[in-house]
Amino acid sequence: MPELIVDLIEASKKHEQYRDKECINMIASEGIKSPAVCQMLDMSHDLATRYAEGDNDMAGHVKKRYYQGQKYMSQIEDLACDAVKNLFGASWADIRLISGTHANTATFKGLSLASKNNKMVVTPLSCGAHISHDYTGLAGSILGIDNINHVYDLKEFNIDAEKSAYVIRAAKPGIVTFGGSLFLFPHPIKELKEVCDEVGAYVAYDAAHVLGLIAGGQFQDPLREGADFITSSTHKTFPGPQGGVIMGNPDTPAKEKAVRKIQHAVFPLTASSTHLGRLPALGIACLEMKLFGKELATQIVKNAQTAGQYLYENGVKVIAEHKGFTRSHQIALDIRAYGGGNKIAQDLEDANIILNKNLLPYDDQDTKENPSGLRVGFQDITRRGFREGDVKHLCDLMLDVIKGKRTPAEVKVDVLALKKEFCGVKYSFQSVEEALKHVKKA
Ligand SMILES: Cc1ncc(COP(=O)(O)O)c(C=O)c1O
Description:
The protein is of the alpha/beta class.
């Protein structure tokens, strides 16, 4: 045991040095917290040991708790909830979820209870849905929800609204889901809202990947386009502490019923500790996105589009060229010509550029081990301060690896030098004190 602990501490230190200081991080599902958010987490250690089981009301505020000692905890939960609602224009939010998957669990369960219907229309897994939407994952294997797939247009890299309308009409699901993990273009919520209403289906939008872009007004606004509920992680493009959130505007009896069922699915069905220590930091992240979100999200999308164009001009097959590659924080590369997703992701890792291999919409779902694609995310490097010129320089390094012009070890030397220039976190507060000063002045 003592040796094991020494190794454990050592490995943890090495990890922090490696991924935080020496790697360029381009995994599209990861986020980067500001110094102020980290400091707030550090200031919340007691809170992180406490419990607050109970019920919430229609505003998402604490209604009833089962334990004593909640004097400030309930206030903290209400205030963090209000920060989320304010940022996203929602009248109700639940911030007790500890992850995006947890948010999907409670939402899918709640909506299937409210609709008394366990059919859900979802995007196919290889076309970008998250595993938690799928019959092989949470939705099917744990919640017993039957999946019916949206029709996906392989030319447009998006849900085919016209054909999906037929599917929804024929299947009469209780839930229609939008959003996903490989997510380049806004999904057709507006176009499908009417048919969802016609069959009585709730519309759920999984914003885990794009929540920060929504906060910055640079992606579709799901609640205004017809989504009844948004589910999300709070730690991808939204640069908060790891956690989950559900929100909506329950302005009809059907939506109020859904909120009650979702809340029941949160507690008592799927949560005991709700990991309260993250809530003050979530509030700080909301403030940062309120103030700097537009600028940050605009630059993230610009950087992703710049990389798409540059890699494409230099011979890499970047998906959706005819649509400008992306409108989100990520691009997708078809890398078969250079050895496939597995090989190139590993070569890039050897050069300290971290991203992931990914199934592309036209891949066979069984090729997960060596898919055609790479998914590349720009939210981390943008917050580090990368602008278009820096992105092109990084693409040159990636191209050297992809095309085998230099060995990964040679490129790694340049990556380390590049990373040294971008160790700070922009579009943020450097301390809680700084955030406090700002709001007091305002
Ligand atoms: C679309 C989508 N939803 C949900 C999740 C799960 O989020 P979490 O890791 O917070 O459980 C992910 C994870 O990447 C995702 O891509």
